[in-house]
Amino acid sequence: MTAANAEAEAAVRAACAVGDIDRATTLALRAYGGEIYGLLAALHRAEGEADDAFAVFSEKLWRTLGRFAWDCSLRSWVYLLARHASRDVRRGERRRRRREEPLGPGSAIEAVAAAVRTETATFLRTETKTAMQRVREELPEDDQLLLVLRIDRGLPWDELVPIFLEQAEGVERGSPLPADVRKRESARLRKRMEAVKKRVVALATARGLLHR
After folding, report:
1. Is the domain of 114 the same as that of 135?
2. Residues 41 and 117 grouped into a single domain
3. Residue 54 phi/psi, 5° resolution?
4. Which residues contact 212 (CB under 8 A, 6 or more apart)?
5. What's the pLDDT tens digit per position in 180-210?
6. DSSP structure class, residue 150
7. pTM of whole model > 0.70?
8. Among residues 91, 92, 90, 21, which one has the least CA distance to residue 58?
């Protein structure tokens, strides 16, 4: 974790400790919102669908920060929430923008989320999609997610484990993962990454992007 990330997470945790969830959510969005929107845009590609997923993510973040146990980094947690939000939107379960307990039009959280979404979307529109990025888009969503988080974002294996392992057998939901579970799942993710890389190479070779 970088010094900037550590400082941001400490500030979020301090806000949570005094029950100021609105402030904690705002700080978390400022710290990681751009990363999350970029990920969702890569997974969904249609900007409207990415916007829906980001709205669902922001709501999930607001609703869960108060009970987040801090047994992993906040960065791991927000990526797990983003994974859930992406799935929800794909399944059509959370396309509506109304909330049972809305954040509120004009609220600080809503404003920050909108600013992050707009700034990141504008930046992404200026980027040229490479042929290799198009190859990635042919992979299953979780494989794309693994590539983005490990290769593009550089998350260490132990931070990836909570994102991809939502509940381990014999471990109560919400409890910290034992060291042996983290070690086993890290090894499993490493193997999966090797398989994903081989798949990318095969697809790229088939499209003439790589030569044997």
Report:
1. no
2. yes
3. -70, -35
4. 205
5. 888 899 999 999 999 999 998 888 888 777 6
6. I
7. yes
8. 21
